[in-house]
Each structure stands twice: as structure tokens, then as C-alpha cells.
């Protein structure tokens, strides 16, 4: 509340002083003929007439192989590979540095990794393989990448999907719902994004695709109560897993992050049990993803990462500092917008896809 | 954004400033740090190299040796290069001679196209134009529905039809022409630059609708990939400019630097929140100033001029100067201010805000403002004009009437009194020419900023004879510790009015 008051005070004073400055600049004659800003005389717009579009048809897709889906562009490590054993070690390290930086691994982690490699005394022709091993080793530190599920009778598992705006939370839920159903789980979706325009409609289409029920609240309503209702409903219907969508929010917006913490607390109430808090990260994101991971983990105890949009040109190397510094395991990978475009994260194929082409 | 970048640059600057001479080794070290700073800010590797080389060139031995303050010289070189990399002059918007002016938005999935489309529609409406929105994203579930909701809150017509996106876009432009709309904004589905089928589709939309402007919408949090993406979209669509979204994040915004360099087109708009009002023209020179630590009073004043109802504000200002500023004026003023965007966002644009204040700005929920409003609305006209008559029982009544607590009412009254005091002091004096300094002194006295707050606010308010300050404009005092505000606007939300 205090912050609000400071803000109101400052802002009002500011607005007035700005006006005074503006008025000081104006010749008096103009002052006398001021007219209302055009924007205040807003004409009413008529509403457009047309049908809602049909749901996008699911794209036919075989279970995708990460390397295939990721490697469609020129490999970042191709120059290093091309050097082979001919170059001197310094040149090889330079090429490795360039590739890591371009993959969004970040300056600090890149330097650390390469310093470790240098210390190991590897020669020019061994840099690439040693680096690949080193990356796999980074991932090996976080061995458990299974999605946690509590089989205790009567417990409703809740998997909470969190992240900043537009990273792919809703889409990931849709894909997970499809995959889990295949595994025989009985799932309920919770449309916990009560904020973005038409967010629940978007999830509803996924619910339809996956053949699951969805609980939604009033637009603009309290997201915690949607999740709470979903847990109750799941219990009544005998569903054992609730996938809860949340509105995208920047990790810097204190009150929105607080709202998320509340959702988590509510979801954890009997019979609900939050067994996964999945942070969805967009592979195109740069170093800010590390900050996101840190802040969301602090606020809501993230248990795993979903790395989306790896089907694009971005390499998603930022998960390396995230795994290394924060010990957060990547659990799922998104490789497209279709229902089948989600795969379990496998360190070796990720590193292969990153380094191997 | 840009926090870490500017902090790092300031560190480098601080060290260089204190030196009388800079050896080649000193320069190398400084440039090395600048390189790291840029990379950490997600500036693309190639662009970073180019940047550092360009700075080195600007700092050729001769320039440095002639200069009495070689440290300053390096900083100046960085600043100049920053402005160049960010895009030089802002794009001057022109309109099609035969309306509608078609604007095509394209970009990756989730970059912020749909939101930007609605924001642009509202922005142009405020410029007195008559825009229409076309929903040509027929791919993502509920994309058109999203646009319709946003269009409704901007009170702009939304056209869409099921079927083929190309046909829909063409039909949308025809519809805009038929309805006599002068601007037609086309929202398209998100697509990857390597998705040939979808890139071909957007090319066909472009060929058939012949957009006057094609903008790439790109997320400010994007990493190294910004360049590849921007280049691919540019090759396919011949971009006219870029809209940088999610600038309200704490991303360091390297994408801004990278994209201009590769595409050679300016960043035209900056999107700084989820509210429809959170969109501004992008000013590279101001942004560069921000990176180097100046606040953004200019944007603020410009917004005030553009978005606030000058009559209403002038009335309040008059009363303020005669010392008769009432709660009614306060409320009116608050409404005007809200037109400029979210409170937190405005606060962040102010120079001289301390780190604590900037953090506090994040936690401001515009929904709380409606509680303030409710309190004032529950007062009688007499109480509003003369708050001192509000005694204990009136407080209870007001609290009950507004659904708040008596503490809230107390708080409001107390803050209002403080504010009145502040304003009484500043009114006539401000007109007499001493305004900025006094204002900021008072703000500083209230703990709203350090010494630099006072200086920069005074400076900015005083140094606005009508033109934007060029790079030579007053800089914060060398080595001044207090960093000044940035361009962040913190967001309320876009969808219908509900407390979030
Ligand atoms: N914080 C913040 N959020 C934004 C901004 N612009 C857009 N968003 C949010 O980012 C998310 C994605 O925005 P959209 O406008 O739907 O993006 P899009 O490019 O149309 O996405 P697709 O159509 O799915 O490709 C939404 O949650 C928006 O509310 C911004 O400037 N700041
Ligand atoms: N190419 C690609 N697009 C994706 C992927 N995951 C999500 N998207 C798209 O990214 C956009 C934002 O996704 P959405 O689920 O709405 O994000 P949310 O705001 O976090 O819920 C949508 O257009 C999705 O179709 C992915 O793995 N690959
Ligand atoms: Mg969503
Ligand atoms: Mg969209």
C-alpha cells in the first residue's frame, strides 16, 4: 500500500509539474484556445461480424526426434568441427567460445566451461568431443527428470505451469494432457489464466483435442479459486491429475508473483498436492531466462523446466547455466505447435543436436 | 531493462574518468568489459564485435591523446555508437495516399503481435485516425477471439473470417476500404523463420495486401537468435521497422541493438506492458541516454501532452496554483494520469528514482487505485473540498461506504494533506521559474530519491525549451552514484477491468 501512495503522490505531482512546464512553453494566446484532446471524443466502433475460426487441425506427426527437429539450421559448431586437428588449440577454443555464446550459454558459463577444458589439457582435435562430454556431465548432475506423480489414493496431483508471457504454457499443457491420457492418467485441466483475453478459450480447444474436462472461472476472476475448484472437481470425478494453467507474468512484478504463490498454496490444500511446478521457458530467450528461473524458483519452488520452441533457429543453450547454477532439470521439450510436438528431455540427444551438426 | 548494461558501462566509465592518460592496454581492458557487458545483455556476437570495433575506431590514439579527459572520450564514443546502433533517428510515420494505410505485423510465436496490433489501433485512434483490426491468425486456438476482446476494449472494429489467412487478410483490407477506415492493421499467426510453408503464406499476405508498413514484433528478452529471426523476416517481407515488446521486463534488451544493425530498419515502437496504453514511439537517442543512466522525462511530458485532457489538467493546475487543490481535483488528476499508462510505469520513467522506489513500482497494482477512488467517492462534496472536517464517525461511514477500512481512509487523508503541502509550495513558484528544483527538492525531502534526483529532475524540467536534448545535453554529474530512472513501464493488464 505504501508503494501505491508514494506512486500516486509522485505521479500526481509530476503530472501537474509537467503541465506547468508545458504551459510555460506555450504562448498565452494558445492557452486560451485549448480544446479537448481528440481522444476524449471517442466514436463508438461497431463490432465486426464474422465467425470464430475452426480449431486448428492437428498436424500429423510421428514422435519427433529432437536431433531431427532441432538441427534444421547450420550447426553452430560446424566451424569448430571444420577446424579438425589442423588448427592450433587457441583457434579451436575460440571457435568453441563463439559457438557457445551464439547458443545463448552466456559469457560466464562459457568461460567456466572452457577454463575447465583448458585445464584438462585437451588438444585442438579433442575440443569438440571433450566439450560434448562436459555438457552431458552438466546435465548428469540433475539426474532425475521424471515428472513426479503421487499415487497415494485420494490425492489429486496438481502440476502447475508457470512462466513469463507468451512462452508456451497453455500449449504445453495441451500437449501434456494428450500424452498423459495416452498413458492412462485421468486428467482435468484448470484454466488458471483468467487474465489474458480469450486465454480460457484457447485452453478449452486443447481440452477438446485431448478429450479432457476443463474447469474455468469468470474472466478476471480469482485464479486461485479456479484451481481450488478444479481440485475439488477432480476429487469428485475421480481424476488423479490436474494440469493448471496460469497467466503469463514477468518475474519482476511482485504482486503477480505473489498471486502465483497463493495459487500454489491453494492447490496444495487437501486433497490437492502440487507435485510439479513446471517453469516454461522459450528457447529464443537470452540470458534473462536465468533470472526468470531464479526468481520463479524463489517464489514458487520450481521443480522442472519445459523448454519450448526448440524447433526454431534458437538453440536454447541458456538451460546450461540454469542446470548448472540452479540445479533445475529440464524435463520436457516443445518442438512445435501440434498436439504431438512434445518430448521428454534427453540430455544426450540435446547435446548431440547442439554440438553434433 | 538495460540495468546491468548501464551499470557496467558506468563502472568502466568511473574508472576511466579518474585517469588522466589512457594507455592502449587500458583501452583494451575497457573494450573487453564493454564486450562482456554487451554479450551479457544478449547483443548478438557479430553485432557486439562490430560495436566494439566501432568504439575503438572512435577512440583512435590521436583523439585520446589530444583529449584532456580521455575517459570521457571513451564514454562519449560508446554513447554515440549506442545511438547509432539503436537506430539513429526515429521513423517518421507517413500514410498511404489512397487509404487505408495497411500495417502488417509478423513475428515468432508469442512475441506480442496480437497485443501490439490492438495497442497500435488504440494509439492511432488517439492520433485522430480511424483504424480497423484484421485477425488473420487462423492457426492458434482462440487467436481471433483474443483480438476481438482486445479490439472491443480499444473500441475498434475487428474483422476476421474462417478459412484461408491470405483471403482473410485481403477481405479485411477490402472491408476497411468499404467502411472508410484509414488504417488497417493485420495480425498474423506466429511463425518460425524456418517454417517454409508459413513464411510463404505471410509473403502471400504481404503481396496481396501491399502493406504500407510491415513491422516485425520481437520480444525484448530474445537472445542471440534475434538476428537470425530478424534477418529471415526481413529477407521475406522487406521490413519497414521493428516493434520491441515486453520492454517492461528486466531483460537487458540486446535485441534492440542487434536487430537494427542486421535489418537496417529502425525500432519504431516500444511495447512496455500488457495495458493497451503501454505503447510508445521508440526514440533511439533517448534510449541511449537511458542506457547511460538518464531518466525519461521527455517521453513523460510528451505523453502528458498527448494523452491527458489539457482542459481538465489546466483547471487543476490553476486551482493548485491558487492553493485550492481539493480531493475532487486529485481524483480527476489521477484519472488523467492513468490515461498515460500504469502508475508503476510512469513512476519508473521518472529520473532520480532510487532502486527501492523502482522495486516498489513493480508492486503497484492499478487495481488498488480503484479503492482510492472508492474512498473519495464515498465522501460528501464538503468533505472532499475540506478534508479536515472528516472526524471519527465520518471516517467509519466513508470506510463502510467504500468497502475499505478506516486505516485506508486515514492513510488517504494523511497522504492528501502531505501532497497539498507540497503543491502549495510549488505552485506559484513553479510558474515563476523555480519549479523543477523546488519540486524535486521536495520529492527528495520525502525520500523519493537521492541528491541526483534533485539535480536531474530540475535539469530535465528546466532544460526543456521545446526540443529534445541531444547527446550533448546535460549528463548526470560525473561519478554521481544515484542512477536515474529508466523506461520501464510496469503493467496492469489489458483485459477488462478487474483487479489483478
Ligand atoms: N509484460 C508484457 N507482456 C506483453 C507485452 N506484449 C504482449 N505481452 C503478453 O505476451 C503474451 C503474448 O502476446 P500475444 O500478443 O498473444 O503474442 P502473439 O505474438 O500474438 O502470440 P501468438 O499469436 O501466439 O504467436 C500475452 O500474454 C501478452 O499479454 C509487453 O509489452 N509486456
Ligand atoms: N514453434 C513452436 N511454437 C510454440 C511452441 N510452444 C508454444 N508455441 C506457440 O507459442 C505461442 C504462445 O504459446 P501459449 O501457449 O499461448 O503461451 P502462454 O502465453 O505461455 O500460455 C503460441 O502461438 C503457441 O502456438 C513450440 O514448442 N514450438
Ligand atoms: Mg496461456
Ligand atoms: Mg497472436
Order of helices and strands of chain A: HHHHHHHEHEHEHEHEHEHEEH
How many DSSP-defined strands of chain B? 8
Terminal residue distance of chain B: 23 Å
Mean pLDDT of chain A: 83
Class computed from helices, strands and strand pairing of chain B:
alpha/beta
**CA-CA gap between termini of chain A:** 54 Å
Query: Strand-residue fraction of chain A?
Result: 5-15%
Task: Characterize the quaternary organization of these chains.
Answer: heterodimer
> What is the 3D shape of chain B?
flat
Mean pLDDT of chain B: 76
Helix share, percent of chain A: 40-55%
Describe this structure in words.
The complex is a heterodimer of chains A (357) and B (500). With 357 residues, chain A is an alpha/beta fold. In chain A, 46% of the residues lie in helices and 12% in strands. Chain A contains 14 helices and eight strands. Chain A has helices spanning 2-25, 28-32, 66-70, 78-83, 89-102, 107-119, 127-140, 169-182, 199-210, 223-237, 254-267, 288-300, 319-326, 347-355, and strands at residues 156-162, 187-191, 213-216, 241-244, 272-282, 304-308, 330-334, 342-344. An eight-stranded mixed β-sheet of chain A has the order 3-2-4-1-5-6-7-8, with helices on both faces. In chain A, helix 5 (89-102) runs antiparallel to helix 6 and helix 7 packs antiparallel against helix 14. The longest helix of chain A is centred in the first third of the chain and has 24 residues, at 2-25. Chain B is α/β, with parallel strands linked by helices and 500 residues long. In chain B, 57% of the residues lie in helices and 8% in strands. Chain B has helices at 3-17, 24-40, 45-58, 61-66, 70-86, 113-126, 143-154, 165-178, 196-209, 225-237, 254-263, 284-291, 297-307, 310-321, 327-339, 343-349, 355-362, 366-377, 381-385, 392-402, 406-445, 451-462; strands at residues 101-106, 131-136, 158-159, 183-188, 213-219, 241-245, 267-271, 279-281. In chain B, strands 3-2-4-1-5-6-7-8 form an eight-stranded mixed β-sheet, sandwiched between helices. The chains are: A alpha/beta (357), B alpha/beta (500). At the A-B interface, helix 1, helix 5, helix 9, helix 11 and helix 12 of A face helix 2, helix 7, strand 3, helix 10 and helix 13 of B. The structure holds guanosine-5'-triphosphate (GTP), guanosine-5'-diphosphate and magnesium ion (2 copies). One magnesium ion (MG) binds next to helix 6 of chain B.
Amino acid at each position: 500500500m505504501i508503494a501505491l501512495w508514494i506512486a500516486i503522490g509522485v505521479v500526481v505531482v509530476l503530472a501537474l509539474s509537467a503541465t506547468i512546464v508545458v504551459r510555460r512553453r506555450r504562448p498565452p494566446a494558445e492557452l486560451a484556445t485549448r480544446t479537448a484532446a481528440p481522444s476524449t471524443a471517442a466514436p463508438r466502433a461497431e463490432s465486426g461480424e464474422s465467425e470464430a475460426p475452426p480449431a486448428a487441425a492437428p498436424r500429423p506427426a510421428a514422435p519427433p526426434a529432437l536431433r531431427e527437429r532441432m538441427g534444421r539450421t547450420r550447426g553452430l559448431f560446424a566451424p569448430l568441427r571444420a577446424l579438425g586437428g589442423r588448427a592450433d588449440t587457441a583457434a579451436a577454443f575460440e571457435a568453441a567460445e563463439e559457438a557457445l555464446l551464439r547458443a545463448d550459454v552466456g559469457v560466464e558459463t562459457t568461460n567456466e566451461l572452457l577454463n575447465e577444458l583448458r585445464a584438462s589439457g585437451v588438444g585442438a582435435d579433442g575440443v569438440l568431443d571433450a566439450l560434448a562430454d562436459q555438457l552431458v556431465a552438466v546435465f548428469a548432475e540433475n539426474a532425475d527428470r521424471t515428472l513426479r506423480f503421487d499415487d497415494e489414493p485420494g490425492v489429486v496431483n496438481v502440476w502447475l505451469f508457470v512462466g513469463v508471457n507468451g512462452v508456451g504454457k497453455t500449449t504445453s499443457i495441451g500437449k501434456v494432457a494428450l500424452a498423459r491420457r495416452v498413458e492412462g492418467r485421468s486428467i482435468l485441466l484448470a484454466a488458471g489464466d483468467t487474465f489474458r483475453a480469450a486465454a480460457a478459450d484457447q485452453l478449452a480447444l486443447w481440452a477438446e483435442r485431448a478429450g479432457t474436462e476443463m474447469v474455468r472461472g469468470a474472466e478476471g476472476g480469482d485464479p486461485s479459486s479456479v484451481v481450488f475448484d478444479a481440485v475439488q472437481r477432480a476429487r469428485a470425478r475421480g481424476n488423479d491429475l490436474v494440469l493448471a494453467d496460469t497467466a503469463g507474468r514477468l518475474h519482476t512484478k511482485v504482486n503477480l508473483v505473489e498471486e502465483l504463490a497463493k495459487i500454489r498454496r491453494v492447490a496444495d490444500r487437501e486433497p490437492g498436492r502440487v507435485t510439479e511446478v513446471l517453469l516454461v521457458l522459450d528457447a529464443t530467450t537470452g540470458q534473462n531466462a536465468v533470472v526468470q528461473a531464479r526468481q520463479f524458483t524463489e517464489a514458487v519452488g520450481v521443480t522442472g523446466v519445459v523448454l519450448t520452441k526448440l524447433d526454431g533457429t534458437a538453440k536454447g543453450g541458456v538451460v546450461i547455466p540454469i542446470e548448472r547454477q540452479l540445479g533445475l532439470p529440464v524435463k520436457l521439450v516443445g518442438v512445435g505447435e501440434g498436439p504431438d510436438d512434445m518430448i521428454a528431455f534427453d540430455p544426450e540427444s540435446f547435446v548431440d543436436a547442439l554440438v553434433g551438426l | 531493462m538495460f540495468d546491468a548494461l548501464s551499470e557496467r558501462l558506468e563502472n568502466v566509465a568511473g574508472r576511466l574518468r579518474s585517469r588522466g592518460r589512457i594507455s592502449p592496454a587500458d583501452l583494451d581492458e575497457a573494450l573487453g568489459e564493454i564486450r562482456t557487458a554487451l554479450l551479457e545483455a544478449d547483443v548478438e556476437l557479430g553485432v557486439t564485435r562490430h560495436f566494439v570495433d566501432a568504439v575503438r575506431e572512435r577512440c583512435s590514439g590521436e583523439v585520446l591523446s589530444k583529449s584532456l579527459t580521455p575517459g570521457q572520450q571513451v564514454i562519449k564514443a560508446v554513447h554515440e555508437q549506442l545511438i547509432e546502433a539503436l537506430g539513429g533517428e526515429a521513423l517518421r510515420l507517413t500514410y498511404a495516399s489512397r487509404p487505408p494505410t495497411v500495417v502488417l505485423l509478423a513475428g515468432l510465436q508469442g512475441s506480442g503481435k496480437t497485443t501490439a496490433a490492438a495497442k497500435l489501433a488504440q494509439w492511432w485512434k488517439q492520433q485522430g485516425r480511424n483504424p480497423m483490426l484484421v485477425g488473420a491468425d487462423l492457426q492458434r486456438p482462440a487467436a481471433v477471439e483474443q483480438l476481438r476482446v482486445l479490439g472491443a476494449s480499444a473500441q475498434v472494429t475487428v474483422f476476421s473470417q474462417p478459412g484461408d489467412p491470405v483471403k482473410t487478410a485481403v477481405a479485411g483490407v477490402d472491408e476497411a476500404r468499404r467502411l472508410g477506415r484509414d488504417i488497417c492493421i493485420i495480425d498474423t499467426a506466429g511463425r518460425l523463420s524456418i517454417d517454409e510453408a508459413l513464411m510463404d503464406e505471410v509473403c502471400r499476405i504481404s503481396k496481396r495486401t501491399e502493406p504500407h508498413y510491415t513491422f516485425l514484433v520481437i520480444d525484448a528478452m530474445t537472445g542471440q537468435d534475434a538476428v537470425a529471426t530478424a534477418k529471415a523476416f526481413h529477407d521475406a517481407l522487406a521490413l519497414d521497422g521493428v516493434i520491441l515488446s515486453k520492454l517492461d521486463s528486466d531483460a537487458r534488451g540486446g535485441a534492440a541493438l542487434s536487430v537494427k544493425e542486421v535489418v537496417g530498419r529502425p525500432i519504431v515502437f516500444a511495447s512496455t506492458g500488457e495495458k493497451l496504453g503501454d505503447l510508445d514511439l521508440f526514440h533511439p537517442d533517448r534510449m541511449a541516454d537511458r542506457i547511460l543512466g538518464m531518466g525519461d522525462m521527455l517521453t513523460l511530458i510528451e505523453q502528458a501532452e498527448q494523452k491527458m485532457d489539457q482542459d481538465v489538467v489546466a483547471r487543476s493546475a490553476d486551482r493548485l496554483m491558487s492553493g485550492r487543490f481539493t480531493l475532487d481535483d486529485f481524483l480527476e488528476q489521477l484519472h488523467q494520469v492513468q490515461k498515460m499508462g500504469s502508475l508503476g510505469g510512469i513512476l519508473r520513467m521518472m529520473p532520480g528514482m532510487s532502486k527501492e522506489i523502482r522495486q516498489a513500482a513493480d508492486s503497484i497494482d492499478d487495481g488498488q487505485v480503484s479503492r482510492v477512488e472508492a474512498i473519495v467517492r464515498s465522501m460528501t462534496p464538503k468533505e472532499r473540498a475540506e478534508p479536515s472536517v472528516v472526524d471519527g464517525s465520518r471516517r467509519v461511514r466513508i470506510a463502510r461506504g467504500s468497502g475499505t477500512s478506516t486505516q485506508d481512509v486515514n492513510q488517504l487523508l494523511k497522504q492528501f494533506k502531505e501532497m497539498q503541502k507540497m503543491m502549495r509550495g510549488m505552485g506559484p513558484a513553479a510558474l515563476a521559474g523555480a519549479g523543477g528544483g523546488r519540486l524535486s527538492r521536495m520529492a527528495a525531502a520525502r525520500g523519493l530519491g537521492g541528491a541526483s534526483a534533485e539535480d536531474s529532475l530540475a535539469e530535465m524540467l528546466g532544460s526543456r525549451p521545446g526540443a529534445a536534448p541531444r547527446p550533448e545535453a546535460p549528463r548526470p554529474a560525473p561519478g554521481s552514484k544515484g542512477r536515474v530512472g529508466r523506461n520501464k513501464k510496469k503493467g496492469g493488464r489489458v483485459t477488462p477491468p478487474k483487479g489483478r
